[in-house]
Amino acid sequence: MVKPQLRISESTIHRLSIYYRALNRLERENYETISSKELAKREKLTPAQVRKDLSFFGSFGTRGLGYPVTELRDKIAEILGINRSWSVALVGVGNIGSALVSYKEFQKQGFRIRKIFDNDQRKIGSNHKGIIVSDADDIVTELRDSKIEIVVIAVPSLVAQMIVDDVVRAGIKAILNFAPINLKVPDDVYLRNENMAMELEYLSFSLCNDEAQL
Amino acid sequence: MVKPQLRISESTIHRLSIYYRALNRLERENYETISSKELAKREKLTPAQVRKDLSFFGSFGTRGLGYPVTELRDKIAEILGINRSWSVALVGVGNIGSALVSYKEFQKQGFRIRKIFDNDQRKIGSNHKGIIVSDADDIVTELRDSKIEIVVIAVPSLVAQMIVDDVVRAGIKAILNFAPINLKVPDDVYLRNENMAMELEYLSFSLCNDEAQL
Question: Does B6 touch chain A (CB under 8 A)?
Fold first, then answer.
């Protein structure tokens, strides 16, 4: 069991996800060890940053030899909780929801969509990749009786808070929200928001602040 | 013109996007000023973090009065480059690409999809929200002759590098990639990767490291 790592920042956790993917690639390329310098170069980070991030998890690297690729990858998977599978429910099979049902990265990292809900009568009962869409009106009872651990919300902003309230009432403690709205959840529920425009804003910031263009 | 803000970290830029949205909501709620404490509370950050982030942009807050909501919102929009519109091209209208064409947040922040490319003969020539899908084979010439500033890649991993090479050849300097693969671009091209599984990994990390559950 991993001990609580309360000092780990949000950006460190994201970098762990990035290291995990980098180490997977390195393993496929038959690397046995990797230096912080090489790992940093591949991911456009500094070696000091890599060493600092990985130092949270005890002494892994051997000076001169680097980090053992497979062992470090497995350790990060354990820390991120992706060395197991998770049962996920999706609410909303509009444009984004439909894309998520087919999104291979979820499966690859162990996130299995096991239930789908919608409030559109034309969608209820339809089959999405082997899952029959349930009525969103039944969400509290259906989630309570299930082993669902994480719920993904891909509904219009107007109904998102109502859906989240139901999801919380059903006892779910982890929610990923795609609706562009600030949802309120109790303190003991983990809520993450995915807003795909934010990465574009990073790019527009970069273009506006590009030294070469000023 | 904004001066280069080279000390601004990736996480600060993301928080600016978050402040921007929060300030928009505050304006709609008729707030004229907001304290760092209240802004922090709404976004689950610390007041010190908010003050530090906003201090990059000169002295905005007045002790005791807080930040002027509209002025700060407009300043952040200028810094992020979203006080104007951007011409965007999308490559790939599969599940994710189709969802992005209808994604209202892009439009709302000024990111206008003006061109769509695909290599599927059944999709080329079809109409997506008023845009006729072009042949991906013509991407270099079509982008060169256009005013496109940012390209969004939503193609399968196997062809993503080839597409990106074409996009770079056409002179594009900002790319948002949805393919779960590490793309190589020259140093003068800004590349951001969107991997929607990473937010789920944050949640699984949180569930695994939840003090209450240990």
Answer: yes
**pLDDT per residue over B20-63, tens digit each?**
999 999 999 999 999 999 999 988 889 999 998 988 766 666 66
> Of B190, B204, B154, B191, which Cα lies nearest the Cα of A16?
B204
Pick the residue from chain A with its C-alpha nearest to B178. A196
Q: Is A212 on the interface with B (CB under 8 A)?
A: yes
CATH 3.40.50.720, chain A: domain bounds: 86-198
pTM of the model: 0.89
- pLDDT value for B60: 63
The pLDDT of B127-144, averaged and rounded, is 97
For the domain covering A10-80, report its CATH number: 1.10.10.10
- Give the mean pLDDT of B61-82: 87
Partner-chain contact B192 A205, CB within 8 Å = no
- Is A182–B82 a contact, with Cβ atoms under 8 angstroms apart? no
On average, the pLDDT of chain B sits at 91
Where does the pLDDT of residue A7 fall: very low under 50, low under 70, confident under 90, or very high at 90 and above?
Answer: low
Q: Across the interface, do B11 and A10 touch by the CB < 8 Å criterion?
A: yes
Out of B104, B192, B206, the one facing A203 most closely (by C-beta) is B192
Whether residue A159 is predicted with pLDDT greater than 70 in this model: the reply is: yes
Q: Does B95 touch chain A (CB under 8 A)?
A: yes
Enter the tokens of residue A16: 């762990």
Q: Do A95 and B82 touch (CB under 8 A)?
A: no
Contact by Cβ (8 Å): A182, B25: yes
- Give the pair of three-digit tokens for residue B35: 């304290």
Q: Indicate the CATH number for domain B86-198.
A: 3.40.50.720
Residue type for A204, please?
Answer: S
Strands (E), A46-147: 67-68, 86-91, 111-118, 127-128, 131-132, 134-135
Contacts of A179 in chain B (CB under 8 A): none
Outline which parts of chain B fall under CATH 1.10.10.10: 10-80
- The answer on pLDDT for B2 being more than 90 is no
Q: Report helix angle A47-55 to A10-28, nearest 10.
A: 100
Residues from chain A that touch B82, judged by Cβ atoms under 8 A, are 201, 204
